[in-house]
Amino acid sequence: MSLVQLHNIEKVLGDRLLFDQLELSIEKGERVGLIGNNGEGKTTLFRMIVGEQQPDTGQISVSRGTKIGYLRQDPSFEPGNTVLDEAEKAFSRLHALSQELRTIEHQMADPGQVGLEKLLARYETLQHEFDAEGGYAWQHRLQATLSGVGLTKELWSVRVEHLSGGQCARLALAQVLISEPDLLLLDEPTNHLDLQAIEWLEEYLTDFSGAVFLISHDRYLLDKLATRIVWLTGRRLKSYPGNFSAFLEQKTIQELSQARAYEIQQKDIAKQQEFIRRFSAGQRAREAQGRQKKLDRLLKSDAMIQAVQHRRSIRVRFENDTRAGDQLLRVRDLNKSFDGRVLWKGLNFKVKPGERIGIIGPNGSGKTTLLKTLLGQIDADNGEIRWGTNLKIGYYDQRLDEFDPDNSILEQVHDGMISEKQVRDILGSLMFSDSDVEKRMGDLSGGERARVALAQLMLEQPNVILLDEPTNHLDIQSSEALEKTLNNFNGTLLIVSHDRYFLKKIVKRLLVLDPPGFEDFDGGLEQWYDRYHQRLRDQTVGNNIRKNTTLRNNSSSSEKVNNRSERASRKDNPYLRPFGRLSVSETRSADHRDRIRADAASGVTRGIISSP
Fold first, then answer.
1. What is the DSSP letter of 324?
2. How do residues 89-104 score in pLDDT, each as one tens digit?
3. Fewer Cβ atoms within 10 Å of its own Cβ: the N or the C terminal residue of the chain?
C-alpha cells in the first residue's frame, strides 16, 4: 500500500530547474534512504510532501488517514516551555480524547440525562481510539524516548531556550518519535547524536512498524536500516533496492554498462556520419539521405544514450613538509569539571607523530572541551599539557560560527599571506566558483560554511590537525573526499566524530571519555564495538545468573512445580535470548502487562490520562 506518491513533479527555484519529472512511491513498512549532494533539493522534497511547499507541476498524493511525522534540521519551540512541556505536545490527540471522555462521564452520571445509549456508544468509540493510541502508557513512552535520544531526567525541567543546539535537535527527534506516525520523514536525524543514541535510534527504527523516509549522510545508518536507496541526481530520482552498500555496487555496474553502451552508440553514429559525408552526392546519395533522416530521428529521441556524468567533488589538500619532534604531545594528570560535574579526572596519555586518534563518548562527556583544552582555549582545573617542537596545529570547529557574517567568502579566507589567485584556486577546489566567492558568510548554508573552514585549514598547512565533527555538514561525496585526503595526510590527527564510517576509515586508536572515567583503547572503532557489545552480553548473562540463583535459594517445598513453570516461561523470556535485549515493541508490551497486573491488584481502572 502506497502511503505517498509523487507523479511528474517539477520545481523551479529562481532561474534553476530543481526537479524534472520526479516519480516516487513510498510503501507501508519501507525504510527508504534519500541521498544526493548538498543543494540538490532533498529538504525541499520533504517540505513538498508535508505541504509546506508546492510543486510547479505534478501531483503529490498522501494516502487517506496517513499520519506523517517530520523531523526538520532547524526545529523551533515555544519559549518558556520546558523539555517535558514540548515533548508532551506529541500527545495532544490523547489529551483531547481524555477531555472528551471525562465530559461524557459527567454527562452519563446525570440522572436526568437523555440519549444515554448514544453517549455510551460515543464513549466506547473514544475509549477504543484512546487505547489504540496507547493512552495508558503515554507517560512511559515519553520518558523512555527522551532518555533514548540522550535527554536525561535532569534536563526535563530545563526551559527550551536554555538548551544547546544539539539538545534542541534531540528534543525535536523525540517529539517526532513519540507521536508514532505512519510515515517518518527524518532530515539528518543523527546530527548531534552521540554513538549510544545513534544505536538506540537504529534499534527503534528497525522495530518501527511504519514507513521511514530519511535524508542522511550516515553510511552506517543507511547500511543498517535502508531497504531501498533513492538517489536525487540530475534533477531526477533513481531507485535502488537494498542498503547503501548494495546501492554502490548497483551504481558501479550500471555506470559501467552505460559507459560501454554509450561508446558503442557513439562509434555507430560516427560510422553513419562518415557514410553520409562520403556518399551525400553520387550514386548512393539517396541511401545517404535515408541514413541522415534516420540519424536525425535518433539524435532527437530517448534512445540516445547519455555519457556517464561524474559529479565534481571537493578536493582537499593538507600540505606540510615540517617534521614534528618525536614527542608530539604528553598529557599528565589532567582534571576538568564543568558546572560542578567532573568531566575527567587524572587524564593521562601520549601522542606520537603520525598517529590517527578518534575521541568518542556520550554527549556532554567533554570531547570538544578536551580539544579546546589541548589548544589552550579553555583552562584545565589542573594537570599538565606539553606539546612537542616543530608543530603547526590546525583546528576545525564544529560550530562554524567564528566568521564575520558581513565578510565575503574571499575576504574571510584571504589572509594576505598568499596571492588572491592562490586563494581563488583553493576555493575553486572546494567547489566555490568565481561568483560564489563574493557571497556573504551570513548567507551561507552549513555545508558551504564547512567548506570555507576547510579552505582556511588548507591555507594554514598544519602538520597536526584537530577536527571536531568534520562531516556534520558534508554530503556523502564530500565526506569521501575528505576521508581520502586524511588517509594520505602524513601528519597527526585527533578527531571528535560520531560518524562511524568516517572513524572506521581513518582512526587506529581511540580515546573513550565516560565521565569521570577515561580509556585509551589501542584499536579501531570496530574492535572497540566488538568488545563493548561483548561486555553488554556478559553483563546481561551475569545478571540473569544472579537472578536465577536468588530464585533457587528462595524456593519452597513446591520447587519442582515452580521449576516446571519456569522452564515453560523461559521460551518466551526475551532476557534469556542471545544478546539479552528487549526490542522496543517488547518493552512496550512488557510494560503493558506489568501495569495491568498492578492495576488488577490495586483495583484501579485505567483509560484516561488524568483523574477527573
1. P
2. 877 777 677 667 778 8
3. N
Residues linked to residue 336 through DSSP beta bridges, in sequence order? 344
CA gap 54, 94 in Å, rounded: 31
DSSP labels for 388-431?
A: -SS--EEEE-TT---S-TTSBHHHHH--SSS-HHHHHHHHHHTT
Q: Which three cell numbers stand for residue 382?
A: 589542573
- Containing H/E element for 539? helix 525-553
CB 570 within 8 A of CB 98: no
Confidence band of 609 (pLDDT split at 50, 70, 90):
very low
Q: How many other C-beta atoms can be found within 10 angstroms of the C-beta atom of residue 129?
A: 15
> Closest by alpha carbon to 341, among 147, 171, 84, 152?
152
Query: Which of 362, 474, 357, 361 lies closest to 374, judged by CA?
Result: 357
> For residues 4 and 133, what is the distance between their CA atoms, to the nearest angstrom?
22
Length of the chain: 612
Q: How high does pLDDT run on average in the chain? A: 84
Query: What is the predicted pLDDT for the residue at 559?
Result: 52
DSSP symbol at 136: G
Q: Three cell numbers at 63?
A: 494516502
Interatomic CA distance for residues 369 and 364, integer angstroms:
9
Q: How far apart are the first and last CA of the chain?
A: 41
Pairing relation of β-strands 236-241 and 329-338? unpaired
pLDDT over 90, % of the chain: 51
**C-alpha cell read off for 254:** 550500471
Spatial contact of 205 and 30, defined as CB atoms under 8 Å apart: no
What amino acid occupies position 63?
Answer: S
Other CB atoms within 10 A of residue 257 CB: 11
| Contact indicator for 33, 229 with CB cutoff of 8 Å | yes
Grid coordinates given for 462: 598544519
Q: How confident is the model at residue 554 (pLDDT cuts 50, 70, 90)?
A: low
Average pLDDT over residues 95-119: 76
Rounded CA-CA distance 251/260 in Å is: 14
Average pLDDT over residues 235-256: 95
The secondary structure element, H or E, covering residue 287 is helix 285-300
